[in-house]
Amino acid sequence: MNVMDYITKKLKSEKLHMGLIDPAEQEPSEAADIAEVLEEVGSDAVMIGGSTGLKVESVDETVKEIKNRVSLPVILFPTSAGTISPRADAIYFMSMLNSLDRQKIIGEQVKGARIVRDAGLEPLSMAYLVVEPGMTVGRVGNADMIPRDQVDLAVSYSLAAQYLGMRFVYLEAGSGASSPVPAEMIKEVRSTIDIPLFVGGGIRTKQQALEVTEAGADIVVTGTVIEETEDIKNTIEGLISTIKRI
Ligand code: 1GP
């Protein structure tokens, strides 16, 4: 499966939803149960990652179980070069452009490049931009966070990413953020760049999903809501139907 083609083709006619599963939060078989629900309710891909101190073994086992049971693309969303599973379909080859830590901008990427090549993983080049409040990823990534009212700064970073040849921009408010990336910021970035825009962090309700997609998010990522809800099927189905209606 060529994941870039899959995403590009889908984006021609609809907005996408991707469900983020953290291998540290459940057993691999339970992760596969969640992935089955995501597939059933019309999610477009499963992203794997998101925790600090993740072990490559648990990433690998989780990807294996999911690949055994669903046909959705499984894409790694790595925190470091040490958590790459060759069983996935693709990997976001991402740089946290607004990190103050060289390791997060290019260090892990140098460490991981040959691992990705040798594993035969499809690299999907992505600019990862952390917006306030940023949560754990902002802290761990030593991000010089984009303030919520600095729309121009988000636009400048996103345009720089496009000019550097990156294929995606991800505006990240941080997993579990109290509110998502501001609509005004999404709108300005979307109207400036030509590459697809991911938005994630703090999206829990249909209203929030509506606001970020109406503002211009092409791909909406949700993670925490999957972990917190009592009824994954209904909750995610509601979010996806909202996202796909735009
Ligand atoms: C985190 O953007 C993703 O990297 C998802 O955030 O867990 O808040 O949905 P949530």
Q: Given this structure, which CATH class is correct?
A: Alpha Beta
Report the principal-axis shape. Answer: globular
Give the ordered list of helices and strands. Answer: HEHEHEEHEHHEHEHEHH
| C-alpha termini separation | 27 Å
Largest sheet descriptor = 8 strands, parallel, barrel
SS-based structural class? alpha/beta
CATH architecture: Alpha-Beta Barrel
Bound molecules: SN-glycerol-1-phosphate
User: What is the number of independent domains?
Assistant: 1
Proportion of residues in helical segments: 40-55%
User: Which whole number gives the mean pLDDT?
Assistant: 97
CATH homologous group name? FMN-linked oxidoreductases
Strand content: 15-25%
Rg, alpha carbons: 16 Å
- Put simply, the count of helices is 10
Could you please describe the fold and organization of this structure?
- By secondary structure, the chain is α/β, with parallel strands linked by helices.
- The chain has a single domain (3-245), classed as FMN-linked oxidoreductases (TIM Barrel), CATH 3.20.20.390.
- The chain has helices at residues 3-11, 28-40, 56-69, 102-119, 135-140, 151-163, 183-192, 206-215, 224-228, 232-245, and strands at 16-21, 45-49, 74-77, 90-96, 122-130, 168-172, 197-200, 219-222.
- It has an eight-stranded parallel beta barrel, surrounded by eight helices.
- Strand 7 (197-200), helix 8 and strand 8 (219-222) form a beta-alpha-beta unit.
- Helix 6 runs parallel beside helix 7 (183-192).
- The longest helix is centred in the middle third of the chain and has 18 residues, at 102-119.
- The radius of gyration is 16 Å and the shape is globular.
- The structure holds SN-glycerol-1-phosphate.
- The site of SN-glycerol-1-phosphate has 15 residues, from strand 8 and helix 9.
